[in-house]
Design goal:
Largest interface: A-B, 43 and 48 residues
Strand content of chain C: 15-25%
Helix content of chain B: over 70%
Radius of gyration of chain C: 24 Å
CATH topology of chain B: MetI-like fold
Number of helices of chain C: 17
Largest sheet of chain B: none
CATH superfamily of chain B: MetI-like
Distance between the termini of chain C: 39 Å
Radius of gyration of chain B: 24 Å
Structural class of chain B: mainly alpha
Strand content of chain B: under 5%
Helix content of chain C: 25-40%
Number of domains of chain B: 1
Shape of chain C: globular
Distance between the termini of chain B: 15 Å
Order of helices and strands of chain B: HHHHHHHHHHHH
Number of strands of chain B: 0
Oligomer: heterotrimer
Shape of chain B: globular
Number of strands of chain C: 20
Largest sheet of chain C: 7 strands, mixed
Chain lengths: 301, 337, 533
Amino acid sequence: MVAETEAVAATAPKRPGQLADFWASFSENRGAVIGLVFVGVIALMAIFAPFVAPHSPIEQFRNFTKLPPVWEAGGNWSFPLGTDALGRDALSRLIYGARISLFIGLMVMSVSIVIGVILGLVATFAGGVVDMIIMRIMDLIIAIPSLVLAILVVAILGPSLENTIIAVTVVYMPRYVRLVRGSAMSEIGKDYVTAARVIGVGTFRLMFITVLPNCLAPLIVQAALGVSDAILEAAALGFLGLGAQPPIPEWGAMLADNREFIRSNPWIVTLPGLAILVTVVAVNIMGDGLRDALDPKLKRG
Amino acid sequence: MIKFILRRLLLTIPTFLALTLVTFVAIRLVPGDPVEVRAGEHGISPERLAMLRHEMGLDQPVIVQYFQYLWQLAHGNFGTSLRTSGPVATEFFSLFPATLELAFCAMMFAILLGIPAGVLAAVRRGNVLDHGVMGISVIGYSMPIFWWGLLLIMFFSEWLNLTPISGRIDPIKFYFDTPTGFMLFDAWWSGQEGAVWDAAQHLILPTIVLGTVPLAVIARITRSSMLEVLSEDYVRTARAKGMSPLRVVGLHALRNALIPVVTSIGLAIGSLLAGAVLTETIFSWPGIGTWLIESINERDYPSLQGGIMLISSFVIVINLLVDVLYGAINPRLRHGR
Amino acid sequence: MKSFIQTGAVALFAAALLASTAAGAKTLVYCSEGSPENFTPALNTTGTSFDAARPVFDQLTEFKPGTTETEPGLAQSWDVSPDGLTFTFHLRKGVKFHGGVNGFKPTRDFNADDVLFSFNRQWKDDNPYHKISGGKFDYFSDMDMPASLDSVTKTDDYTVVMKLKSPNAPILANLAMDFMSIQSAEYADFLLKAGKPEQFDQIPVGTGPFSFVAYQKDAVIRFKAFPEYWRGKAKIDDLVYAITPDPTVRLAKIEKNECQIMIAPRPADLAELGKNADINLLHAPGLNIAYWAFNTTKPPLDKLEVRQALIQAVDKPTIIKEVYQGAGQAAKNLIPPIMWGYNDDVTDYAYDPAKAKELLAKSGITLPLEIDLWWMPVQRPYNPNAKRIAELMQSDLAKVGVNATLKSYEWGEYRKRMQAGESMTGQLGWTGDNGDPDNFFFLFGCNAEKKPASQNLAKYCDDAFNADLVKARGLSDQAERAKIYKEMQVIMHNDALMMTIAHSVVYEPIRKSVEGYKISPLGSHYFYNVDLK
């Protein structure tokens, strides 16, 4: 497709039926479709949490603490997946937790894309010192182990949901910058860009209208996989007690809060982790499908 | 070639300088007073506080503190830990072998399982085996490793009682000097019966936990790179000539397919160290990860600063080496990018 | 330096091992919680560090094992002048210091010089060791030693005279605390001459029942019984602290008999431990309090009705049941019932949301009331899970129209900000140091300027309360003091400064093979009397 777009893009970046093509090759991949369905279900659950969840995620049923799931002895159908140490319904907390995790993932991704596109394009088009400074800073961020950096940012800003998003964005943003710069660099020397320049297209238009659309394919793939990375990283922060604060039902924090019951009531610890895993796997196989569909070279291979 | 290496080396100097500035500023921004945090419920009197802050140089203007820090760094002094009053560099290097040992074992685990799995999946492309490997690999790199660690502890240590839950060796049964800090080696060197086995048992679960993500990544890269090589003309030719599939894969394809795998391993060191933070926390592994988290919790500025400096420098150096190696393999890279 | 210590220690330990295995040595392994900061108690504030140094040292007066009563230690007896200002200590003779540790051979017995050194190191700037190892002597200043001591002098080698500026009844108990451990002045000189004074706090030498052998950070501390101990050699030969931060691991170790005594089991695991036939689950009421303090300077918490309403809105029995899980008893007073002076006539505020609503309506404030509720980020002996308590409170408060925002900071920052009066309401607690009620009530006293002292989280300075506090401190008759403390408990109850949450119950599992071990109400661990069968 790279070669194809090159030819077409100079004149008309959009081609009718492109979306249909894409869908055709995406739906060929059974795993990807399953991933998409899962992501859809989780997203719907998150959006309609108040209607789906049997209880409020923060209501404490003091007479029903540490109840096991229904399939274990002593389970109760009003609490299908049991309750935690404070008597809160595990299923409801998991459903509302999906909101938190998806929200974090999407926020991190969108903010990173915006910053990544701007910095990446500026680095490409300004070149020289500006390019060097931006890229050195990105190198620097990448050199610090991601979780340590995220912890440091949270330590500075204080633990909260918003600051988790900021911390994870800081950690993952350099990838987007590098990616945009990398693909923009390879586009900038091509004929259609030179042609546009000769016609007298302004730099701003050149950046965002001419070049950017041709860098989108890898960016979309990175964005999908970036959502899952962000969910994992935020959960890790939550696990270390540095994420969303109580009573927000964040999956990582739920795991950490109940860690002491690993021996006596293992399911309280098991379920939130499983929720994280399922969500991240679904997003990842969907992302893989996206990549295969957008990158015919890999599809062929 | 030498010019290329020199240029890369020169480029790291501003990176280092920026690193000192960033860590210095960031750590000063962390709220909390390193003196205050040491007191218990008892608290500390304002006069004492002022005196201790003065002794630690914390009452100087920040800019003065920064240059003092640079001056010390230039003399190889990474500061003095507020917790233990020992030099930060000494503490770092006494704990670093533990992290390296774990990271090395995790990498070995990932390579030794990941490459064969990837090759197998590529050779048996499209059949159950391929789907199985790819499915497990997706789960692997989607794994929240802190949860994975807890699950493994629950299963192997608590229920089956097979592996120890934490630490590097049983300190009661075995007692020896640790000149290198690499427990497997030190255990062997001590000559105590059963020590190596005990150290190995302590390594098993943390190795699996830390190795899971790289294992998944390596398997995937090996598979796709192998598929690419297998479709190249010379492999097809070899096959057409009637060479046995095993020889084709083993002799010709694998060698070429491994180049991207090797680079990705080099680049994975950084993320491996990040994963080590969580793994060490779960298994109370006395390495850099636990130490850094403790330093943050206890506002041990010098340790935190020195620790981040040292570990980031390590990553920068590794990346530099990968770049140089890659440049040696692929001459096109040497000239500008 | 480190490798030197280790190598030396390895050789020593090997020798000790050889010597002892022949006689069928008894080794007691204690699963402790963390690494000590160093081995000089005067420099430290944490129980973990105190425990690590305790086998090595003695104090002038000592706590009888398992109690908060003091008994003679290195001071065989003492006289107190009638005005309560002069204490004359008669020191024990023939007490030996550990020999052969770190190359040090004591040439003399314990005497008054060691006592003076141990005071002066913490007290006097001109002591050569005052600044070594950070030079922080928090307990010495917290217990008001610099303010109360006038002079400490020796009249001869075995007599020390301590003069106070004002009468201070708890001081004999203070001297029994770890920070007043007696260290060797001769060892201090020896290291100073060798040019490595910092080793003084890393490789300890004392007169205690066990001498130091080796320490590996985050792994193990080794001691061996001191044959010439003045009370007689301990019944066990080797004492090992296995440093095991994770409670699950500690549990696994005691179940496998890899250690015989363990600290701090998790409440969630108590049931399992109770069922184990090889383990005795010892328990004792802790000398502590967990409370939820109201900052009386922040409206509307200056209104008594509001404070009372908050207390009655919270379901204390559920906190005891779900968070303490049996390892705690509901508290109605600041001091625990095992302490003398406890006022059992105080009736606790009952859990009564209806009454709480009524009180809030009466106070005239508009609902919903917005407050903040701080919780400590760490587990403390008196509070296993402040976060979970905060979540329970938050839910209870919502039902009476109070919206509580949960807040927490890193532990040091948390205390600092609370002491600065930043919070509206917040959890904290206290563990008694010496068994004297004064050690609890001073928390809510006033400072010299008639303002609430910084650790006074209610930011409350009541004249009657403070006058009582000062008066009781100056008396030496315990019955009289008890009467005053009982009154003070009534004042505190009526003023509703805080919700007293719980006194925790300390649990310590020991193997059935352990004999003679007693839980200390002070939270310390002491192994001299222990035997293994």
